[in-house]
Amino acid sequence: MKNQKPCVAEEIDLSNYIEPTEAELILVNGGADMGYYQSMNSMAMMKKNKESPVITNTAEALKLYYDNDGSPAWISGKAFDAVKAENNKIYNRKIKSGKTTLAEGNYNLDMFLQEFFIGRTRIDYKIDTSEKTSTVTFTAFNYDVFWDADVFAPKETEDGPGPNNELEGGTVYPFIPRSWSMTFDNPKKMNWLSEH
What we know:
Mean pLDDT is 74; it is low at 1-45. The longest helix is centred in the middle third of the chain and has 19 residues, at 77-95. By secondary structure, this protein is α+β, with helices and mostly antiparallel strands. A hairpin with a 3-residue loop joins strand 9 and strand 10 (133-140). It has helices at residues 58-67, 77-95; strands spanning 17-18, 26-28, 31-33, 36-38, 45-47, 54-55, 74-75, 104-110, 120-129, 133-140, 145-146, 173-174, 178-185. The chain has one domain: Beta-Lactamase (2-Layer Sandwich). The strands form five sheets. The chain has a four-stranded antiparallel β-sheet. The protein has a three-stranded antiparallel β-sheet with strand order 1-5-4, with no helix packed on it. The chain has a two-stranded antiparallel ribbon with strand order 2-3. The protein contains two helices and 13 strands, in the order ββββββαβαββββββ.
């Protein structure tokens, strides 16, 4: 449930991988949601398909932990909407205001209180700027996995997708990253364009 160590290709069912040219766009709330995962060890992409399990809350995530073979899961509905809503606070405060100093980067988004099963997830962003507007593309759940499900185990035994802190009979599984874009008028000062 924590996003501390990346998934590696060996831990993922490779039958879910496709070539990047096949990644399909799914429109979500006025933005483009690519629904793919790029492995650190592979240039292949993993996307949602008809067989991908869909989870919308902690109860479903835990049920899948016991009923899954490690196949990647698609986070949907209220849970994904909560991630975007929490992310909008950072978007409005740092990006849309022009305060962020990097045009591309990532940060952790703590979702423990809103959607416990997501925990702390990584958000990647990239800002593309034109003469009058900028578009920022966000990607949530990059290299994120449902793991260390035993929340009562000592913190010092956390090991990501390793055997510590897993519940008997459970199987860790990755989340399929989801991307969306937002376009806004350029602020007066765009710190990401400044030379550092």
